Amino acid sequence: MAFPFHLDLLVGRRLVALDLIVVNLQSEVRLSPHKTGLWCKWLSCGIGKLFSCFLLVKKVCKSCGLNLNQHDSRDEPIFFVMSVVGFVIIILEMSVKLSYEPAYWVYLAVWVPVILISTIGLLRPIKGIIIGLQYKYWVNQNFEN
Ligand SMILES: [Zn+2]
User: Fold this and answer.
1) How far is the CA of 145 from the centre of ligand 1 (A)?
2) Which of 3, 45, 74, 120 has the most Cβ atoms closer than 10 angstroms to its Cβ?
3) Ligand 1: distance of its center to the CA of 76 in Å?
4) Separation of 60 CA from ligand 1 center, angstroms?
């Protein structure tokens, strides 16, 4: 958890303002990894964006300072999205084929864009959820420096 903290200190005759963010990485993760992952937010504070590029995870959160240098989701998001989208598309395609028997060009015109859009659209949220679950359950092993 991250707590923003503001201090006004009188040092000698000067007033010094300090803005601090107190981070407790040992505390229990209270944010849902599903919610933060789905919205591609940071798992520890839920504020900043998790990705700097399409699937490139930022190394350090600017809000809470959590370091995700050690994260490793490997091929899990791609495998999960491929399995789910493939299963759903096959069921839909077979039901359309058995019901309407459309021409072959209809398959190309309909299913290729549906597959591309659903696969690319699901990759970021699924990767965010997997990283969130990794952080929640292995916070003391893999995410500390
Ligand atoms: Zn953060």
Assistant:
1) 16
2) 45
3) 23
4) 8
